[in-house]
């Protein structure tokens, strides 16, 4: 065993328990432990929130989405669909028309986001887990068109699936007419559709009505045009790679985005918050670890005679310096290991039992999501190593420079 480590270990475990130096060392251990535990827990919560948002996006958003580079619509063609379907990893292609419209139901009305989709949308099964009432269907047995309505729209319009005689009336500005009189019956195109299902994901999707593509195309006079193509990838294929492969085959008139790119702003905000929280907690750990500096400085003063004796026995300044570096490492790493163990235990308990609630009735999950990533554990460990070396080096160097003479 390394001699410096053995001496440092003896100093640590054989101190007088009533010593003020020992008290400071234990305060430093506790501070580093609490800071380390907090960092592990907080970083895991941010990971959990990022993972939760990805699950939410997956429920509604496609794996890959193709949009026009300019404007909000483009002409669809069989050759375009064939090019996309020929890309390795593409499972299905859903044609989409999406825009704002006015919805009426009974005596209520509100602005909604209409999303017209073809029959392949139902087979993707995206909304299966989000459906809270009714069924996921676009057409009835007799060809009657049905809409899948968000919970927010159901509440705003007081929609009842049991009321089969009252349809939802959709209105969209009639682009074929030049009239400026909004009270004119020709100012808006109209379509009637029955509510067939209610879904809930989160509030950002609460203004959606999903309807058959043919109904929306006629309502918005798209005439063979689409606002987007949504692509589901086959199992085992990377969304990013499939997105890049499609982009290579299409012209520059299109923008191809994977799911993370579609929600880049929110994911970037979470990562920036995680970075700044990491920096803040690192500074807190540094403040706690400054006690190690004071502890080692006072220990160096207390052990002057021991240092002189070691020099007399042939010790080098490097050996003496390493003794105090190991002493600081023992104090810091003891607290860090306890903090890491406590933080991991708290995260595992939260994952299993959900002790801490989100406290929001509209949330998809009852408890705060946490996700342990070993990269964060190693990052926390690296921070502890850097801080420990930083606060231990100066007192260790001063101890190595100590010069003591014995009186004869």
What is shown here, in short?
The protein has 408 residues and is of the alpha+beta class. The chain has twelve helices and twelve strands.
Description of the molecule:
The chain is α+β, with helices and mostly antiparallel strands and 408 residues long. It folds into 2 domains: 3-58 and 266-400, no CATH class; 62-259, no CATH class. It is built from 12 helices and 12 strands. The strands form 2 sheets. A 6-stranded mixed β-barrel has the order 3-4-9-6-8-7. A two-stranded antiparallel ribbon has the order 2-10. The longest helix is centred in the first third of the chain and has 41 residues, at 20-60. The protein is elongated and about 105 Å long. The model has no long low-confidence stretch (mean pLDDT 84).
What is the number of strand segments? 12
Largest sheet: 6 strands, mixed, barrel
Q: What order do the strands of the largest sheet run in, or round the barrel if closed?
A: 3-4-9-6-8-7
Based on CA atoms alone, the radius of gyration comes out at 33 Å
* Number of H- or I-type helical stretches: 12
Spans where pLDDT lies below 50 across 5 or more residues? none
Mass-distribution shape: elongated
Mean pLDDT: 84
Strand pairing plus helix content: what structural class?
alpha+beta
Determine the N-to-C terminus distance. Answer: 35 Å
What letter string, H or E per element, gives the SSE order?
HHEEHEEHEEHEEEHEEHEHHHHH
Number of domains: 2
Roughly what percent helix?
40-55%
Strand content: 15-25%
């Amino acid at each position: 065993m390394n001699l410096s480590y053995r001496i440092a270990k003896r100093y640590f475990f054989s101190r007088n328990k009533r010593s003020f130096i020992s008290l400071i060392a234990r305060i430093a251990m506790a501070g580093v432990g609490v800071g380390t535990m907090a960092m592990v827990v907080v970083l895991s919560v941010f990971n959990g929130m990022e993972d939760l948002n990805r699950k939410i996006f997956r429920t509604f958003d496609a794996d890959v989405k193709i949009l026009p580079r300019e404007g909000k619509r483009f002409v669809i063609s069989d050759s375009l669909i064939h090019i996309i379907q020929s890309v390795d990893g593409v499972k299905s292609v859903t044609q989409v028309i999406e825009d704002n419209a006015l919805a009426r139901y009974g005596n209520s009305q509100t602005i909604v986001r209409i999303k017209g989709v073809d029959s392949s949308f139902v087979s993707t099964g995206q909304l299966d887990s989000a459906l809270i009432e009714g069924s996921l269907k676009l057409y009835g047995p007799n060809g009657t068109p049905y809409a899948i309505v968000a919970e927010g729209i159901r509440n705003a319009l007081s929609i009842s699936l049991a009321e089969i005689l009252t349809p939802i009336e959709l209105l969209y500005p009639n682009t074929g007419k030049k009239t400026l009189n909004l009270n004119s019956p020709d100012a808006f195109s109209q379509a009637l559709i029955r509510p067939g299902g209610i879904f809930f994901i989160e509030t950002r999707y609460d203004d959606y009505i999903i309807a058959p593509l043919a109904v929306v195309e006629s309502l918005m006079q798209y005439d063979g045009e689409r606002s987007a193509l949504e692509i589901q990838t086959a199992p085992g294929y990377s969304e990013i790679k499939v997105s890049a492969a499609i982009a290579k085959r299409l012209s520059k008139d299109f923008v191809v985005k994977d799911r993370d790119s579609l929600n880049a702003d929110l994911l970037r905000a979470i990562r920036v918050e995680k970075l700044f929280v990491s920096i803040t907690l690192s500074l807190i750990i540094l403040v706690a670890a400054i006690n190690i500096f004071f502890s080692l400085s006072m220990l160096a003063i207390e052990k002057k005679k021991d240092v002189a004796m070691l020099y007399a026995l042939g010790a080098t300044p490097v050996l003496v310096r390493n003794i105090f570096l190991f002493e600081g490492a023992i104090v810091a790493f003891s607290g860090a290991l306890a903090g890491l163990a406590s933080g991991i235990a708290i995260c595992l308990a939260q994952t299993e039992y959900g002790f801490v609630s989100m406290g929001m009735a509209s949330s998809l999950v009852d408890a705060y999501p946490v996700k342990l990533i070993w990269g964060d554990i190693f990052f926390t460990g690296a921070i502890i190593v850097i801080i420990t070396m930083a606060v231990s080096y100066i007192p260790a160097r001063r101890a190595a420079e100590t010069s003591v003479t014995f009186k004869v």
